[in-house]
Specification:
By secondary structure, the chain is of the alpha/beta class. It has one domain: Rossmann fold (3-Layer(aba) Sandwich), CATH 3.40.50.720. It contains 6 helices and 10 strands, in the order βαβαβαβαβαββββαβ. This is NAD-dependent dehydratase.
């Protein structure tokens, strides 16, 4: 029986790579949810497409009901969205959540790179940390993903760190983060109840190479 996977924020750049990897997999039934659904049906003809807003309870409930896995790729009020997703999943008895946040939410980046990261996105990290706290405090089987600074390079190399370990890689491609997400979706024993940093091997430095 095909695994039912809901992608929230399906028009996002990382999600687009995930969808591309999964759209022809006969063992997966995709539901794609976004505020702007333009092009999604053409990209994934076999997927169910839902136009909606995560912060609209009826939209979210319709999308979550009956799913096996929810993968959230969201921007904006991520903490408020995390709260609504957790409540809806718990109500609908859907257990598995994969949720993208940001590097730096636990002050886990040492040295000059950590200082640079705080200067650049410190204000945004409050919302991402709150989102992670909500998810980690839930009854769900979650994987919180903390990608490094994102590039559009055509590469899929990545390495991971666990919560409590130093995060040192300054960048990673969106395609590589997508490859990690696909590995989670296809192996449901991997990184359960975990917060995982994703970085490009060998990308340590004081800041990303493109700054």
């Amino acid at each position: 029986m095909a695994a039912k996977i809901l992608v929230l924020g399906a028009s996002g750049a990382i999600a687009q790579h995930v969808i591309e990897d999964l759209k022809d997999d006969k063992n997966i039934a995709l539901t794609l949810f976004a505020r702007n659904i333009n092009g999604l049906q053409e990209q994934a003809p076999n997927a169910v497409i839902i136009k909606g807003d995560v912060l609209n309870k009826e939209d979210l409930q319709e999308a979550v009901k009956g799913q096996d896995i929810v993968y959230a790729n969201l921007i904006g009020q991520v903490d408020k969205m995390a709260g609504e997703i957790v409540k809806t999943m718990e109500a609908e008895k859907v257990q598995r959540l994969i949720f993208i946040t940001s590097l730096g939410i636990y002050h886990e980046i040492p040295g000059k790179f950590g200082q640079w990261n705080d200067r650049m996105i410190g204000a945004d990290l409050v919302r991402y940390r709150h989102a992670a706290d909500i998810i980690e405090g839930s009854a769900l089987n979650y994987t919180v993903i903390r990608p490094s600074w994102l590039t559009d390079k055509n590469e899929t190399d990545f390495e991971t760190t666990q919560k409590g370990e130093p995060f040192t890689g300054t960048e990673v491609s969106r395609k590589a983060v997508a490859a990690y997400i696909v590995s989670l979706l296809k192996n449901q024993e991997k990184d359960n109840h975990a917060s995982v940093g994703v970085q490009k091997p060998g990308s340590q430095g004081d800041k990303p190479s493109f700054y």
